[in-house]
What we know:
Largest sheet: 3 strands, antiparallel
Keywords: Membrane, Transmembrane, Transmembrane helix
Organism: Elysia marginata
Number of strands: 5
Transmembrane segments: 54-80, 86-112, 119-144, 150-176
Structural class: mainly alpha
Strand content: 5-15%
Strand order of the largest sheet: 1-2-3
Protein name: ABC transmembrane type-1 domain-containing protein
Helix content: over 70%
Low-confidence stretches: 1-20
Oligomer: single chain
Shape: rod-shaped
Order of helices and strands: EEEHEE
Amino acid sequence: MDDIGVSRTGLRCRGLGGLSEWGEGQEQIVFLMLYRDVVVVVVVVVIRVVVAVVVVVVVVVVVVVVVIVIVGVVVVVVVVVVGVVVVVVVVVGVVVVVVVVVVAVVVVVVVVMVVVVGVVVLIVVVVVVVVVVVVVMVIIVVVVVVVVVVVVVVVVVVVVVVVVVVVVVVVVIVVVDQKIICRENSKQKGGIYHKQKGFKITTP
Length: 204
């Protein structure tokens, strides 16, 4: 049947041949058939709705799970990246601290070496200067002493020589004068001149 309807006098059925009127018994059968069809349609609709709801729920659950997984992966990636960054920062900090400590130690060692070398050089210079000054002073003192001694010796020798020469000359002059005087006296007064003793013996 293409179309089934209910009128005031009974069931009206539109078929291929037109409209026809049915009785009360046939009307109950038609209602049962309609009820069956409605139940089937309702069941089908309910099944479709349930399937649609299930599909929607599944899709929502899948989407939620995917979102949770994606968020979890993103969180894990972020945590890993942050951890790597923290590790890199810590490593860089440790390296920087080590480099700073090494540079500070090297600078301290260089400064200490420079100070030690400077002190050693200063001590060497002072010692060399003192030694040179002492040597020069000793040389000067020795030279002065030698010069003074030589001068004193020369002066003493010269004085001695001069004194000796003067004494000799005086003695010679005195002796010669005495001899001359003795000879003259001998000639004048007639005495004997003692040649060895240098005086004359006069007789009364």
